[in-house]
Amino acid sequence: QVQLVESGGGLVQPGGSLKLSCVASGSILHYHMGWYRQAPGNQRESVATMASGDVTNYADSAKGRFTISRDNAKNTVYLQMNSLKPEDTAVYYCNAAVWANSYWGRGTQVTVSS
């Protein structure tokens, strides 16, 4: 089992940047890692994912603005978010998945507001 702890959220003005981090309690080398978000009243949605072979996939809303990366040596996955918009406001969750197992962190709040 893997525990995930997200950090890096906060309040930022439109157009600003944030970098989220997700630290795992164990090796993520073979895990498919992802960032998801959930805004009030909405379902949780995928933002960006990265397979163990570093193949990435982004939601259309994140393309060109967000970058997912991983440091397997540090058991950490990152989400660099640039050009943030008010509609990016949500709780951001980290996910680690391998085979039939899927683990979630508790999330970190991102608020984009002037």
Describe, in short, the structure shown.
By secondary structure, this protein is mostly beta strands. Helices cover 0% and strands 53% of the residues.
Key features?
single chain; 114 residues; mainly beta; 7-stranded mixed β-sheet; 4-stranded antiparallel β-sheet; 11 strands; 0% helix
Overview of the molecule:
The structure is a single chain. With 114 residues, this protein is mainly beta. The protein has strands spanning 4-7, 10-12, 18-24, 32-38, 45-50, 56-58, 66-71, 76-81, 90-98, 101-104, 108-112. Strands 2, 4, 5, 6, 9, 10 and 11 form a seven-stranded mixed β-sheet that branches. Strands 1-3-8-7 form a four-stranded antiparallel β-sheet, with no helix packed on it. The model has no long low-confidence stretch (mean pLDDT 96).
What is this structure's SSE topology?
Elements: E1 4-7, E2 10-12, E3 18-24, E4 32-38, E5 45-50, E6 56-58, E7 66-71, E8 76-81, E9 90-98, E10 101-104, E11 108-112
Parallel strand pairs: 2-11
Antiparallel strand pairs: 1-3, 3-8, 4-5, 4-9, 5-6, 7-8, 9-10, 9-11
Question: Which sequence of SSEs, written as H and E, runs from N to C?
Answer: EEEEEEEEEEE
- Overall outline: globular
Weakly predicted, low-confidence segments: none
How many beta-strand runs? 11
- Mean pLDDT across residues: 96
Number of helices: 0
Helix content: under 10%
Radius of gyration: 13 Å
Helix and strand composition category: mainly beta
**Mind describing the biggest β-sheet?**
7 strands, mixed
> β content, as a range?
over 45%
What is the rounded distance between the termini?
A: 40 Å
Give me the oligomer status: single chain
